[in-house]
């Protein structure tokens, strides 16, 4: 029997027009995304080809992992500025391991994950236990991890790595590379975790109102620690993906990625105050940014102009979202 | 039908005129065609239950919200809809429930913000502003130093400063949203004096309130909103208190407080030598099943701190708490929840509810383990359990997925209350359970408290509302300076001089105090 909620009073009938416009407003980013796709498809014959769409996915994968980690952090009301540097440090640690520990694809993977976990855990500990503002904590880690990356390579990239180092990024399963598969798995599983598990609900709760969540029995310090640790691990994996694709460890890899990740999360409708946002929103946000990158490349727009255009689109997209949210709330 | 009255002053142009105002949020109509006028030199009370649309109407009248239909006129001029700036320049000012003052700035800076005094070369003339501010403050009977920081002042004083700010910028219509909800009784009297003197200067004042005494003390006329309709618009002299209450809740309120069944004999909540803060007297007591223990005292006496120590939001200096014989881990809410202890905190928005989450998710939080397997939330089971409880709480919402920030205060409180009732509760801690809750919802909350206690719960209830303490408790403590200074049994609570006794204990004026009372 369906005994749930239909019996609540004060529920008013809404006509279909309102529902339809409500749907459009709630999914405004999807609409924006479709418009941008349509524009590029119209302007460039190469845009809407299977090869190019695969390229977009491949470019999106490392970026997706850090954007997902960033989503969790932002949902708690924090921010992780260190992910770009942590990518670099993890990539360098993995490359160093590959160079010195022989021809195994597993050891570099372990090195990258451990480096990311370590950096994320330090962030998490300082934020949760010592209550240093996340902005400051992760700004410090940004500098520190970048320094570590250069220390590992003695200031230079690590080249001449064994071919197995490339297997992580270049292995294909069912026509998709490993990073793309990992991205899809990460999005699906994190979407499930955030929507349907205790953990997800608690993350939303401490982001929405930390004191109220603690009173309701949420151990907010553990949760806070965990989101930074997860963000670190994902940054580690992401750094390895990038390094593996070119079979080189570069200490300046991932630079500035944190800002694109934050942009993706915010375009996805998350509030930097915490408590609001979704994994699906972030997925749309990052695909939007990657599509723009790719489309502008195809249209042969010069790199510096690409940044100008991207900046405008990011602010405009969020502006549209804020406008839609205001209309939706009315 | 509102008629423009003319006393002996001839016909009067209404200060503010709302006609046919309609408004809905997310498809739910909140105001259904409201028409009224405010005349100069009058004080009008806007009464109604939580969720009746009072705050929304205030925001429309002050230009913060754009109504879906209808219009607002200020002194005969059309107010461009949804334009707060225009309302302001037409002389309409609002003092919101949550004050909009800037806590880090000084009093005079707050008073002059946006229209600072400058000297000849455009530099801020602080000396002139301080001098003028002092004059304003004195005019309103405040001896506050204009150079004190806003955040260092009591809420009641900050509120008067907000009123000064509004009126000295030439506001002719003053809207006060729940002006007395956060201030002490003594401050209410001062506020009433100020409202009257502004009225005599010809300002039109509209204020919202839940409390009958304040309507009687301040208003000339009372408007009653119910479910988005203006159900009564009457000069105060022509309506009785019962008439107002009936109009607000749409039925006769036969009895605010339900009967109080006898307490049981089993000890449920045992507090032993709990020291709330360094230097405080240890507190020990036992609450039996079915017993309601009231905690009375002035603001800052330590009632909230005691409740927080028992529950574990705050770590006590020493002492233990047992629920049904099992000792709680100090400072660990999770262990308290596991021992079937529940709390309804004083600050609903700050500590009770996560406003950005749905009813369903809020109600899931404290009992999350019961609604999940291996960390994965159940779908149907939790929806059913929570739906049943919220129905018994008579929650008014747009389904369980509605976010709390779209619910009225009374309904938010029902969620904060009801979320515990999906599982067993042995002891219940209530801190100001009816603060900011209107008469109708209030009697429902009293009914729920009494039902829960008669079903065997031990209840501790801190309250500043004297009738609440006197009518619901089996026993009451009076607190002062973080300790218990008096205990009153049922016979004493029924004595005609009890209010006086409680006040003496709470303020430390008792004839035979054990404690040193140097302030």
> What fraction, in percent, of the residue positions of chain B are helical?
25-40%
Multimeric organization: heterodimer
Q: On the 0-100 scale, what is the average pLDDT of chain B? A: 84
Q: Catalogue the unreliable spans of chain A.
A: 1-13
Total strand segments of chain B? 22
Task: Give the helix tally of chain B.
Answer: 18
Describe this protein's structure.
The complex is a heterodimer of chains A (330) and B (519). Helix content of chain A is 72%, strand content 1%. Chain A is mainly alpha-helical and 330 residues long. Chain A has a single domain (51-329), classed as ABC transporter involved in vitamin B12 uptake, BtuC (Orthogonal Bundle), CATH 1.10.3470. Chain A has a two-stranded antiparallel sheet. In chain A, a hairpin with a 2-residue loop joins strand 1 (172-173) and strand 2 (176-177). Chain A is globular and about 65 Å long. Mean pLDDT of chain A is 87; it is low at 1-13. Chain B has 519 residues and is of the alpha/beta class. Chain B folds into 3 domains: 16-91 and 172-249, Rossmann fold (3-Layer(aba) Sandwich), CATH 3.40.50; 255-340 and 424-519, P-loop containing nucleotide triphosphate hydrolases (Rossmann fold); 354-423, no CATH class. Chain B contains 18 helices and 22 strands. Chain B has a 6-stranded mixed beta sheet with strand order 6-7-8-3-9-10, sandwiched between helices. A 6-stranded mixed beta sheet of chain B has the order 16-19-20-13-21-22, with helices on both faces. The N and C termini of chain B lie far apart (56 Å). Chain A binds chain B through residues 3-5, 7-12, 14, 18, 196-199, 201-202, 204-205, 207-209, 211-219, 275-276, 328-330, and chain B through 24-29, 311, 313, 333-334, 337, 343, 345, 350-357, 361, 364-366, 368-369, 372, 375-377, 383-384, 387-388, 390-391, 395-401, 419.
